[in-house]
Specification:
This protein is mostly beta strands. 0% of the residues lie in helices and 55% in strands. The termini are far apart.
Length: 115
Amino acid sequence: QVQVVESGGGLVQAGGSLRLSCVVTRSDFRPDAMDWYRQAPGERSEFVAGVSSAGVELYADSVLDRFTISRDNARNTVYLQMNSLKPEDTGVYFCKVQIRRADYWGRGTQVTVSS
């Protein structure tokens, strides 16, 4: 069974940075799309950033020019570098990967940005 595990969350002051990691294990195939979503308290989950197997990146407008997504195919890992963090970036960040048209989600990592 494919496993998706996020790490790197924490508490940071506004203006600070964090780097999230998401590693995929127990997969016989390289992930296709690898995405990050987040869910703020009391809100619905929203797309943050994604990267295709070809390396094409896509970002939500709210994080453009502040967040950078990257992937290491040799390690089946996707990263999210988050700079200039704002209190509104607070939430649980989830990694979603697509492998042969099936979606797999991690359990999330908490990011809290204090003002």
